[in-house]
Amino acid sequence: MSGSFLGASVVGAASASLRVLVGLDRRGANDDAAKALEQLVRFSFGQVLDVQIEGRDFLGPKSDRPAVFVCNHQNILDILLLAHVFPRHCCIMAKDAFFYVPFMGQFLYLADNIFIDRANAKSAAKTMQFVAAEMKRKKVGIFMYPEGTRSYQSDNSLLPFKQGAFRLAIEGQVPIVPIVISTYHDVCNPSKRIFKGGKIRIKILPPIPTIGKTQADVSSLLNETRSLMLSTLQEISGPPSKLQIKSKL
Q1: Which helix (DSSP H) or strand (DSSP E) does residue 200 occupy?
Q2: Could you report the per-residue pLDDT of 133-192, keeping only the tens digit for each?
Q3: Same domain membership, residue 61 and residue 33
Q4: Residue 248 is assigned to a structural domain of this protein
Q5: Is residue 54 located within the same domain as residue 42?
Q6: Of the candidates 185, 225, 237, which has an alpha carbon nearest to the alpha carbon of residue 69?
Q7: 178: preceding bond cis by omega (within 30 degrees)
Q8: What are the φ/ψ torsions at residue 155 (nearest 5 degrees)?
Q9: Contact 139, 150 (CB under 8 A)
């Protein structure tokens, strides 16, 4: 898995560097990296991973930007799966610690993705205001994990959502587009470091509009989105495990 992501990071960094030299939008390197990663995943795991996608039309064309895309986060396999559905003309909002990860940090920076210091509320708030304005000015989408960290869940559950994605969507008056990946503890088991493959379902839900909403509506928007994603997760996943996986991959 790490080899596939490393390869995609190198492709993305190279694409971003070339785009800078010829004067193109370097965020297009995210599309290039996603395509490269998807091909690497198909080549490396195509015989064991059966990825089924529903609702791809809700990702929309480039002309549908800006939008905020949110997805549940289970473990490292998510990154490989998202290569199949990563929205075009979209950038990633990542915690600033990723800036220092070899290759990935360089790629994220060169492709003009956004780093946020979640430990500094004042800094994070300013970043959100800047991003909301940037989204509308450049008509770009933003991808975020509202759980904020990997859940490692095996019982078809979600961690509590953080407010950032929903504050951002309301600030920019842009829709939220939920993406749900089915529970896959039986496919990739981090407690035993086992990857045996199997079927994984990804479902993209219809956009949730925010036009007319204010920051006073953040909690209700968050709860609506989380409720939809949780019911979808339970719908597309197999029976929950009685043993919740805690250890990390």
Answers
A1: strand 198-204
A2: 888 888 889 999 999 999 999 999 999 999 999 999 999 999 999 999 999 988 887 666
A3: no
A4: no
A5: no
A6: 225
A7: no
A8: -120, 25
A9: no
